[in-house]
Design brief:
The complex is a heterodimer of chains A (303) and B (526). Chain A is of the alpha/beta class and 303 residues long. Helices cover 32% and strands 29% of the residues of chain A. A six-stranded mixed beta sheet of chain A has the order 5-6-7-3-8-9, sandwiched between helices. Chain B folds into two domains: 251 residues, no CATH class; 241 residues, no CATH class. Chain B is globular. The chains are: A alpha/beta (303), B mainly alpha (526).
Chain lengths: 303, 526
């Protein structure tokens, strides 16, 4: 499989702020890639660079084998974009906006347009100014999904959708992937990321802090354990990778790094394991660890 | 909680948002009114000049339409009212309508009213604050006019009445706008309704003044003139506009109580589910966005042209008896009627320049609103997205100036029974098109290289207006005059048609536009 998006060392500075500070992003073809990070981390700026709207100060960016700035027009025929904050032309109807954007991209599939309107339950005869945020997003989504493209660039596309529409959206993305489409999905909806994404990149303060498959990411985080043994466990505190140990007699609670799980269980085994509950990290914990200030003291591997 | 609680804070918000806008409106209005008063006092200094003026215009229906019944002519004060008052009423009315809608329905449409009304702010606080601030601006115009007119040597009581009539009419239009803001969901429709009512008041008053005067009493503008500044002031008549303003504002607040936030009284009709084949690209989109403005300006300038065209003949009569006016019109000593038409065409060209800039600067507004980004994320080259608006601006201004010239020519041709006047006066308007194109080119240059300063293109038009209208009066140095693209245009039909300046202006406009598009290709968007 080829590489759809390859970004390395991207730097972009606005008047006073360094929005991107050496960002890396690599998206394989035909994968759904989650693009995550707290507000203001630089997700939209990266996407604007990829769309050739902003010119980076330094670093390289390749999109579908081309230069996002120099080959913008040719590349845009092969991709569709849904902005995070959809603003439409107030006097046009939703249907007119969908057709206009589709024609500018080189035509859209009328059958799929009708089907998507139906599935997203969108009235195309309403004027754009009377649409709610969710309905404006649906207009942009229908316009993007009804066109036949290789790459979908979606910037928080579901922030205004209800759960039913969220399910429709997820189904459409999975179908697009099945047809060979690559998707870059910036999102804060972790359930959506878990359901759709093959791999993710987490960025913070304009830098990539983590990248890989979800399984990889899980592997990098700690498991919470609660154990009871026949005789009190000694030596746990000396094992590397054990954190926040609290023990009383034969009971102990602690967190353990995934890499050290085997050594820890071996030690417990020698003390006569009576009961063991372990909780894998939730998605929330996974991301909060990267979003929050705990980042500084947590070692992070960037792939 | 009273429906008015929070009014003071809301008024501070309006003042903070519009501090520059308010100051510019009030000062520009005072400059317009007082410079006209000053020029009237110098042009009609002697009794014989005033009598000649009265003889020429007093019974001319077109002059009465533009000036009012002319009560008290030929006194100097009455001439001031005849020349200044109606223009002043229209301007102060326009100011009131635009400012009130901007602070009420436009805010509501943008969704900001919802945010404020969710706080401890009464339902009426927003509209009451907008009305109070705009009434303050109207009052400032009135007081400034009264003091300025008195300072220029006119009778104090008449000056006060003129200022009071301006402020009172402005207040009526502010209340009209507040009512219009309740009717439609959309700010543009509300402004349009307010402006249409302003036009209706003008037409009712004009019809009344030309006829027996009865219809004038059906129009607040008629009431303002019925105060009779400098002609035995009737102060009690001022109660009529004040009462109407109170009634309209009350009605607006009662309607507000009966509707939802964001909703209007008129429901929006559904539109087409698919785009027509004309809406296939940036040009189709730009045409769609600007066609109403072009049609509106075209109709307005056609009527203005017809109005100028129908007074052309009487200029000869008027000017032959007034040396000062003759000197003003024809510095070169050519045919006076032609000089008048050349000046009329230049003034209409300045108005057309307003349309050109309104359309061309929209390209920046689209970028700020975030609507350029989704277009550029499609297979649309940057230059085409900008060029669409620039082309519509260039073609639009040519269209409306052609209509202005046709209005001028058809009216004059009908009065003189000389069909040859139509192409002549059409040409008089069209020679200004390349100068307006330079405004479009300047907008493109700013948009490409200094996008935040795109609005500065308006300064070029404002400067051109000063040069064209007041250049001789202010005795501006030649190089300042030459900064305006409009001063290079030959004053057809008074002068011969010189082609070279038109070619130069067109080339300059194209070069500016090309440079602007090149800048757009290099810069960040969004």
């Amino acid at each position: 499989m080829g590489i759809a998006i390859d970004v390395a060392g991207l730097v972009k500075t606005f008047a006073r702020t360094r929005a991107l500070d050496g960002l890396d992003l690599r998206v394989q073809q035909r994968e759904v890639h989650g693009f995550l990070g707290p507000n203001g981390a630089g997700k939209s700026t990266t996407i604007r660079v990829l769309l050739g709207l902003l010119r980076p100060d330094s670093g390289t960016a390749r999109l579908l084998g081309g230069d996002p700035w120099g080959d913008a027009v040719a590349l845009h025929r092969r991709l569709a974009y849904v902005p995070g904050d959809v603003t439409l032309w107030p006097g046009l109807t939703g249907g007119e906006v969908i057709d206009l954007l589709g024609r500018l991209r080189g035509g859209l599939d009328a059958g799929r347009r009708a089907e998507l309107l139906e599935r997203f339950d969108l009235d195309p005869t309403k004027r754009a100014r009377s649409y709610s945020k969710g309905n404006r997003q649906k207009v942009a989504l229908v316009a993007a999904l009804a066109s036949d493209v290789e790459l979908l660039v979606l910037d928080e596309p579901t922030s205004g959708l209800d759960p039913v529409m969220e399910a429709v959206f997820q189904d459409c993305i999975l179908r697009a992937r099945a047809q060979g489409c690559t998707v870059l999905l910036s999102s804060h909806v972790l359930a959506e990321v878990e359901a759709l994404c093959d791999s993710v990149s987490i960025i913070r303060l304009g830098r990539t802090v983590q990248s890989g498959t979800l399984a990889d990411l899980r592997h990098l985080t700690r498991t919470a354990m609660s154990v009871e043994t026949a005789i009190p466990v000694s030596g746990l505190e000396h094992l590397p990778g054990v954190h926040g140990l609290s023990s009383s007699g034969t009971r102990a609670r602690f967190d353990v790094d995934a890499e050290q799980l085997d050594a820890v269980v071996g030690l417990l085994h020698r003390h006569g394991l009576r009961s063991l509950t372990s909780q894998p990290p939730t998605m929330e914990e996974l991301f909060l660890r990267h979003y929050g200030d705990a980042l500084e003291d947590a070692p992070v591997r960037v792939r | 909680m009273s429906p008015l609680s929070g009014t003071r804070a809301m008024a501070r918000l309006v003042l903070r948002r519009d501090r520059v806008r308010l100051a510019v409106w009030v000062l520009a209005l005072l400059a317009l009114v007082l410079s006209s008063v000053a020029s009237v006092t110098s042009l009609y200094a002697t009794a014989s000049q005033r009598e000649a003026y009265t003889a020429a215009v007093g019974d001319n229906p077109v002059a009465v339409i533009m000036g009012g019944p002319g009560t008290g002519l030929p006194s100097l004060g009455a001439i001031v009212v005849f020349e200044v008052a109606v223009v002043g009423y229209v301007a102060v009315g326009l100011m009131s309508v635009l400012l009130v809608v901007r602070s009420t329905r436009a805010e509501e449409e943008a969704g900001r009213t919802e945010l404020l009304r969710a706080g401890p702010v009464g339902r009426w606080a927003g509209p009451a604050a907008a009305l109070a601030v705009v009434a303050g601006a109207d009052l400032a115009v009135g007081v400034g006019t009264a003091l300025g007119t008195a300072a220029l040597g006119l009778d104090l009581s008449g000056s006060l009445a003129l200022g009071a009539s301006l402020a009172a009419f402005g207040l009526v239009m502010a209340a009209v706008a507040l009512l219009a803001a309740q009717v439609s969901e959309h700010a543009r429709a509300a402004s349009g309704l307010g402006a249409a009512l302003l036009g209706a008041f003008f037409v009712l008053r004009a019809a009344g003044d030309v006829g027996d005067g009865a219809l004038s009493w059906a129009s607040p503008m008629g009431w303002a003139l019925a105060v009779r500044p400098f002609a035995g002031e009737r102060w009690a008549v001022l109660l009529l506009p004040l009462a109407l303003a109170v009634a309209l504002a009350t009605a607006a607040l009662l309607l507000l109580d009966r509707r939802d936030v964001g909703a209007g009284l008129v429901a929006v009709r559904p539109g087409p589910a698919t785009a027509s084949s004309r809406l296939a690209g940036p040009l189709g989109l730009a045409v769609r966005q600007h066609r109403a403005a072009v049609a509106g300006w075209g109709a307005g300038l056609f009527l203005l042209g017809a109005a100028y065209g129908s007074v052309g003949e009487s200029v000869q009569e008027l000017v032959s008896q007034n040396e000062a006016l003759a000197a003003f019109l024809a510095a070169g000593g050519t045919d006076l009627v032609d000089s008048f038409f050349a000046l009329a065409a230049a003034m209409m060209a300045l108005a057309g320049g307003g349309l050109a800039l309104q359309v061309a600067t929209r390209v920046r507004a689209e970028e700020v609103a975030g609507r350029l980004e989704p277009l550029l994320a499609t297979a649309l080259p940057r230059w085409r997205s900008a060029a669409a608006h620039l082309v519509v601006a260039a073609v639009g201004v040519a269209l409306v100036l052609a209509l202005a010239g046709l209005g001028l020519g058809l009216a004059h041709a009908a009065l003189t029974e000389d069909a040859g006047q139509v192409p002549r006066l059409l040409g008089a308007a069209l020679v200004h098109v390349p100068a307006a194109w330079v405004l479009v080119g300047a907008t493109a240059l700013l948009f490409g290289w200094a996008p935040r300063a795109t609005g500065a293109a308006w300064a070029l038009l404002a400067g051109s207006a000063v040069v064209v209208l007041l250049g001789q009066t202010l005795r501006l140095p030649g190089w300042v005059v030459d900064l305006s693209p409009f001063s290079v245009v030959p004053a057809v039909p008074a002068e011969h048609l010189a082609v070279a300046p038109l070619v130069w202006l067109t080339a300059l406009a194209l070069a500016l536009a090309a440079a602007g598009v090149a800048g757009l290709a290099r810069r960040d968007v969004g």
